[in-house]
Write a structure and sequence with these properties.
Layout: H1 3-22, H2 29-34, H3 41-52, H4 55-68, H5 74-97, H6 104-110, H7 113-146, H8 150-168, H9 170-199, H10 208-211, H11 220-234, H12 238-245, H13 250-281, H14 291-299, H15 303-336, H16 345-369, H17 373-382, H18 385-397, H19 403-423, H20 429-449
């Protein structure tokens, strides 16, 4: 076995042991899904940061920027970093104060159980796409480190990820996210310094068009579309909201989101810079997503390379555990548990764990047949999120609009996205779906507030 694979294996084993040790505190469904709402500043900040700073930031964005220049980093780190900022400024406090266990609970509290169930059906596929992106990235790291076929390494990655996620719940995730976040920051700094010292390249040598974040957009609407998908599509994602709900107070949730946003953007500049310099350092890569692990293999040696590979694994594990956990929690807490009111807390936890295993297999299949990490992440952000965003926005900050309005908005947001993105090939499918969802909600508000006209009295 190559030394780097042995090192990664030991690293993963250490994470599993930490998760298993912390998970002994899990007694109830709330413990498993939202860490008993006990997370302080440090754990909340790093679990938000590490959950988002995953494969798409380290692997996907570096590869996308390698191929397209800075415009390839619209979603990550810039768009998703802005998401965390908006979460802290606008949404963290009102979400936490509602005492939710999952984001779908908001749809039941504010609208109806029917709206709750429809929201779950829209949110779960997004989480699975996100998890598939992380599993694929894990496979890319193993492939670059070992020379094995990508399909084989993706299979191994999926097995590790499912076992890792089942064991802990949010509390274990938060503690491992803290360790993984620190390891990731150190690993990226080490490889960045190594490249700079050994090559001495600077951004001054990068062509101007590669540094223009709007290069390649045919119109301003194209640019707005590219930014709207990660920002609007992810600021109220179930994965992010789950971390907010685990904080011990509304103020902890708000401040931790703001700090995580700054940390996210700052650390994210390292893969951005390496992606911009990539064509000079490694011209003609067949798989740009392997840029970061290949750079580490070239410029780091021995223990340093093993540490960096462990850092990439950290980024992936800390994201995929949240995606699988949230997909499982939505189905178990909001669909299955209400059907069996006599379940004990222990039984609820095991149903959630079974969901993690099932959705891990589904995500594995998605990872095998996906075109790339970045494409999966963008699809996860766009899938059904326009209607969800509009309904949550009005649900948090307005009493206008009821169950029928919410159902129509969710349906119209999904329908317009499918039509625009897959069937009719509209130029700006996400903006169209967002406009359709907003228009549907506004019309629904008016119709629900307008009394029905009196029925005519039959002539005698």
């Amino acid at each position: 076995m190559p030394p780097v694979l042995l090192g990664i294996g030991l690293y993963v084993l250490a994470q599993l042991l930490i998760g298993a040790w912390v998970s002994r505190r899990v007694r109830t469904e709330a413990d498993y899904l939202v860490a008993g709402r006990s997370l302080g500043y440090g754990l909340t900040t790093f679990t938000v940061f590490a959950t988002w700073f995953g494969a798409e930031t380290c692997i996907g964005s570096a590869g996308s920027i390698y191929a397209e220049g800075l415009a390839g980093g619209t979603a990550d780190p810039f768009g998703y970093g802005l998401c965390l900022l908006l979460m802290g400024l606008l949404f963290a406090v009102p979400l936490w104060r509602r005492g939710l266990t999952t984001l779908a609970d908001l749809f039941r509290q504010r609208y109806s159980p029917t709206v709750e169930r429809m929201a779950v059906l829209l949110m779960v596929p997004s989480g699975l796409l996100w998890a598939a992106a992380q599993i694929r990235a894990f496979g890319q790291v193993l492939a670059a480190s070992s020379g094995w076929e990508v399909d084989l390494t993706i299979t191994l990655a999926a097995a590790v990820v499912v076992v890792y996620t089942i064991s802990g719940g949010l509390l274990a995730d938060a503690w491992t996210d803290l360790i993984q976040g620190i390891a990731l920051i150190i690993g990226l700094i080490v490889v960045g310094i190594a490249v700079w010292q050994q090559e001495g390249v600077t951004l001054a040598a990068v062509p101007v068009e590669r540094i223009n974040p709007f290069h390649g957009y045919a119109s301003w609407l194209d640019a707005v579309e590219a930014w709207a998908i990660p920002v609007v599509g992810s600021v109220l994602s179930a994965e992010l909201v789950a971390r907010i709900l685990g904080a011990r107070s509304a103020e902890v949730a708000r401040r931790s989101s703001l700090v995580a946003s700054g940390l996210y953007l700052l650390v994210g500049l390292i893969p951005v810079t390496l992606g911009l310099l990539g064509p000079q350092l490694m011209p003609g890569l067949e798989h740009p997503e392997q840029l970061l692990p290949l750079l580490a293999a070239r410029y780091l040696h021995g223990v340093l390379f093993v540490a960096f590979a462990g850092a990439l694994v950290s980024a992936i594990l800390s994201t995929v555990d949240s995606a699988l956990l949230v997909a499982s929690s939505l189905v178990s807490h909001n669909l299955i548990v209400p059907l069996f009111p006599g379940l004990t807390e222990r039984q609820k936890v095991w149903i959630a764990r079974g969901g993690v295993a099932f959705f891990g297999i589904v995500a594995y299949v998605g990872a095998l047949y996906a075109e790339g990490v970045y494409a999966l992440v963008e699809e996860a952000s766009a899938f059904g999120s326009a209607g969800l965003f509009v309904v949550i926005l009005f649900g948090l900050f307005s009493q206008r609009g009821g169950p029928r309005t919410a159902l129509a908005t969710l349906g119209m947001g999904m329908l317009s996205w499918v039509l625009g993105a897959y069937l009719l090939d509209w130029p700006h499918p996400y903006l169209n779906s967002l406009a359709a969802a907003l228009g549907t909600y506004l019309i629904g508000m008016l119709l629900e507030r307008t009394p029905a006209p009196p029925r005519p009295v039959a002539a005698t």
